[in-house]
Amino acid sequence: MTGDETTNALLKRIAELLETMTGQAAIEPDFSVANAFSWQAQTSGFTPVPKVNRVDISLLKGIDRLRDILINNTKRFAEGLPANNTLLWGARGMGKSSLVKAAHHLVNEENLGASDVPALKLIEIHREDIDTLPVLLGFLRDAPFCFIVFCDDLSFDNEDTSYKSLKAVLEGGIEGRPGNVLFYATSNRRHLMPRDMMENERSTAINPSEAVEEKVSLSDRFGLWIGFHNCSQDEYLDMVAGYVAHFKLEIAENELHRDALEWSTTRGARSGRVAWQYVQDLSGRLGVKLES
Length: 292
Description:
The N and C termini lie far apart (60 Å). It contains 10 helices and 7 strands. By secondary structure, it is of the alpha/beta class. It has 2 domains: 198 residues, P-loop containing nucleotide triphosphate hydrolases (Rossmann fold), CATH 3.40.50; 54 residues. Strands 2-1-4-5-6-3-7 form a 7-stranded mixed beta sheet.
């Protein structure tokens, strides 16, 4: 090998290393291998998720209207029609993330075999990787699929500025959100910011109202706000009964109600999550395995 060839080989190797270090390596992901992926920010890669941890949509009780809103939005998007970025916010354990995963699965099942509708892919991004969204979107922009980028439990703490990257991606960036990408997020907060963070901004700003508007405007970038609230006792018992019927657990109705209410009292809450935790405990006591 001549000196020039050695130099060129060395320069090529340096370039490859720099691309890897900066997350710009031109490795095209194969989105055909699965319908769900987890975004790995450190390596700028996508890990296929062949079996998504999800609940059948028929088991999500007490949120019928909210369910229909999200499903209709997701269906329109998959069919190439206008649809909105969506923020699912509110009470803990009421099925926000479960609904996103169930809606994604339902729409794909309904479109199965339709040659004119591309498969809908679900891409999970972790909260701490939100500032890498522009890199992620770069991989999705020209792919022949529709993508829902999903962030569970999204919120921002004091001195966290990564929300500005999210704002630019949702609306207003120079490139904007690709037409084949929709962003879904769940949060316990409607405005994604803690109250004291907004109050601190108000107290130190020259124009307090502008500081608050800066924080609130992030939520405004979501075209749909779907609010989840604590369920009633009857809704909680319906959730429990739905699981019990689905998994064919044999227990008298009056005993089930008494037992389930006692469980929720010890937990200090009633929600879909508490209902599921109770059913897991019940099935264990009955010696019945829960088949997925």
